[in-house]
Amino acid sequence: MTRAKRNRLIYNCVTFAVVIIAFIVLQSMIENKTITRALKGQLIPICCWIVMAVSLNLVIGISGELSLGHAGFMSVGAFTGAVISGWLLNAHGMENETLRLVLAIVGGGIAAGIAGVVIGIPVLRLRGDYLAIVTLAFGEIIRNLVNVTYIAVADGHLVFSFLKKNVPEGARMLVDGASGAVKISKISTFTMGFILVLFTLIVVLNLINSRSGRAIKAIRDNRIAAESMGVPVTKYKMMAFVTAAVLAGMAGALYGLNSSTVVPSQFTFNQSINVLVFVVLGGLGNVLGSVISATLLTVLPEVLRAFADYRMLVYAVVLILVMIFTNNPTIRSFADRLIAPVKKLFGGKHSDKGGAQA
Amino acid sequence: MIFLDNLVNGISLGSIYAIIALGYTMVYGIAKMLNFAHGDVIMMGAYIAFCALQYWNMPPLVSLVVAMAACTVMGVVIEGLAYRPLRQAASLAVLITAIGMSYLLQNLALMIWGANPKSFPGSMINIPTISLFGGELKITGATLVTIVANIVIMIALTAFTSKTKTGKAMRCVSEDRGAASLMGINVNQTISITFAIGSALAAVAGILLCSSYPTLQPTTGSMPGIKAFTAAVFGGIGSIPGAMLGGLLLGVIEIFGKAYISTELGDAIVFAVLIIVLLVKPSGLLGKPVREKV
User: Fold this and answer.
1) Which of B86, B274, B294 sits opposite A323 (nearest CB)?
2) For the structural domain made of A3-327, what CATH number should be given?
3) pTM of the entire predicted model
C-alpha cells in the first residue's frame, strides 16, 4: 500500500469513526435522557447542515466552482419532500412513517437533481465570479417560483398551479404559495438523519477517491491541462454539481419534514452563504472539516445565547477573526513556528510507528 | 402614460442600483474582491442621515455630508482592519471575511437602532412633484434628484478616473497591481481611496434609496446590494460605464416585469434576464473578454 493510499484510508476511517461515535454517544444520551432539550431539537438540523456542507464542499473544494445558490436545491428538496409525504398520507393513506420519509427523501433528491441538471447546463459554461452570480440568481429564482406555487390534494389527485384560484375549494393544501408548505406531519428522525449523513459521506468520499474524482480535481487544478489530456470537462463538472444538488435535495427533504411549516424565505441567499461559511471554515476539500464546522457553527449560536442580543455580533466577529488568523501570511508563519516543535515531536513518533509496522 | 410612468420609475430605481453598483465594480476592478458588506454600508449611511435629520435637526445637505463622511471613514476602516491583512490570501477567504463584515454591520445597526423599521423622513429631498402632460405624468422630487445625481456622479467619476493622477493610479492598479507598484504607485493607498469613494457613494445611494422607499431597517441594504452586484456583473464587472448601464437596465426590467408580467415574479425576471445575457455574452455587456493563454 502506498503512503498516499494509506493516509487516505486513515482519513476516511477517522471521518466515519467520528460520525458513528458521535451518533452512538448522542443516541445513548437520548435514551438516558441526559441530553438537553435545546441540543435534542438541534440534532436533525445538524444532520441536514452536515449533508449541505459536505455536498457544497464537493462543488467548491473538489470541483473548484464557487456556487452561491446551494440553498435553492435544499428548497426544492424540502418542498418536494413535503408534497410527497403529504400526498402519500392524504391521497393513499400511507401510515408507515419511515417508508414515507424514505420516499420523500429520495423524491426530494431526484427533484433537486433534475433542478441541478437544468441549472448546471448553462451555469457550468461560465467561470469564476460569473458562475457565482448565476448560481445566486438561480437560487433566488427558485425561491420566487416556490412563492407562487400552489399544490393541493383534491379527491385523491395532486393539483398543481401557479394561481391560487385554480385550486378547487376544500382541497387539502400542501404548498400554499408564500405561506409555504403547511401542516406537514413531522416524521423526520435522528436515526434517518444519521443514515443520510453516512450515505453522503460514502458517496462523496468514494467519488473523491475514484477515477472520476481524480478527473474532477485535475480540472480544478488546471482545466486546460486536463482538457488536453482528454478529460471531458463538462461531464465531470456536471457530475460533481448534480451529485451535490441531489444530496442537498435529500437534506432539504429531511429538514422540511422536521417542522410543521416550511416557508420559501427560509432558503434565501443568506442560507447559501451560511453553508458556504461552514465549508470555508472547515477547510476547502476537507470532508471531515465540513462535518465538524457544520456541527459547531449550528450549535454555536445556541451556546452564545448567554450573550443574548450580542450573539450574532459575536458570531460575525469570530468569523472575521478566524478568517484573518488562518489566512494572514504573517500570523500563519508565526503560528507555524509555535507549532513546529510539537509537530516535530508527533511527526517523529508517527514515523517510528510506521517503521515498526513496515 | 402608465408606460411612461413605469419608465420613469424604472430609471429612478435603476439609477440607485447604478450608484450602488459603482461601489461594487470599482472595488472589484481594483482590489479584485467582492465586497459583500457594501449593501450594509448603504444601510448604515441611510441610518446616519436619518439620525442627522431626525435627532440632531441638521438641514438635509449637512446630513448628506455627515452621512458621506461617516461612510467614507467606515469604508476605509473596514478595508484597513479586515481586508488588508488578507491581501495575499485566496479570494474565497476574503469573500467570507466580507460576509462576516456584512453580518457585523447588520447586527451593529440592530443593536444601535433596533429591529423596528424607521420611516425615512421625506424632508430629506424637499423638491415638489412635477406634473407633466396635464397632470397625467407625475415625477416626484426624489425621482428627479435620483436621476440627476446619477448623471452627475457618472460624469464626475469618469472625469476623475481619466483626468486626475489618483484616478489614473486606480486604473493602473486595476490593470496590473505588480507593475503599478513597481512604477511607484502606492497600491494600499489607492485601494483605500477606492473604498473611500465607493463608501461615500454608498451613503448617497442609501439616502436616495430611502427617499424613494422609506422603510429603513437593518436589512434594508442587503437586497438592493445583491441586485446592484447583479447589475455590476450584468454590465461587465470592473467597468464603470458598464455598472451604469447594468444598473439602469436592471431597474427598468424590474419595474416593467412587476408592472406587466407578475408582481411576485419581479425578482425572478430580473435574474432570468441576467442569466440569458451572461450566456450570450459571458463577460457582461461592456466587460472585456478575458483571453486564455496556454
Assistant:
1) B86
2) 1.10.3470
3) 0.81
Chain B hits for A122, Cβ within 8 Å = 275, 279
Q: Chain A partners of B271 at a C-beta cutoff of 8 Å? A: 137-138, 140-141
* Distance (Å, whole) CA B181 – CA A146: 50
Give the minimum alpha-carbon distance from A276 to chain B in angstroms, rounded to a whole number.
Answer: 8
Structural domain boundaries in chain A: 3-327
Residues 6+ apart with CB under 8 A from B108: A313, B44
CA distance A347 to chain B (A): 27
Cell of A183: 401542516
- End-to-end, the C-alpha distance of chain A in Å comes to 10
Taking CA atoms, what residue in A is nearest to B281? Answer: A126
- Asked if residue B294 is part of any domain, the answer here is no
Distance CA B41, CA B121 (A): 19
The verdict on residue B207 lying in a domain is yes
Domain that holds residue B201: 2-280
**CA B137 – CA B128 distance, rounded (Å):** 14
Q: Say if the Cβ atoms of B278 and A126 lie within 8 Å.
A: yes
In a domain, B292, yes or no: no
B286 part of a folded domain:
no
Number of domains in chain B: 1
pLDDT tens column, A71-80 = 999 999 999 9
pLDDT single digits (tens) A275-321: 888 888 888 888 888 999 898 888 877 777 666 667 677 778 877 88
Task: Identify the burial level of B241 via C-beta atoms within 10 angstroms of its C-beta, where 0-12 means exposed, 13-18 middle and 19 or more buried.
Answer: middle
Q: CATH number for the domain including B177?
A: 1.10.3470
Using DSSP bridges, classify how beta strands B130-132 and B215-216 pair: parallel, antiparallel or unpaired: unpaired
Residue of A nearest to B283 (CA): A130
Does the complex come out with an ipTM higher than 0.85?
Answer: no
- Does the beta carbon of A219 lie under 8 angstroms from any beta carbon of chain B? no
Q: Does A126 touch chain B (CB under 8 A)?
A: yes
Does the CB of B180 have a partner CB in chain A at under 8 Å?
no
Which of B229, B265, B271, B283 is the best residue to mutate to test the A interface, defined by the most A CB atoms within 10 Å of its own CB? B271
Q: How many CB atoms lie within 10 A of CB A195?
A: 16
Cα separations in angstroms, B226 against A94, A269, B40, B253: 44, 9, 11, 16
* Chain B residues within 8 A of A328 when measuring between CB atoms: 85-86, 89
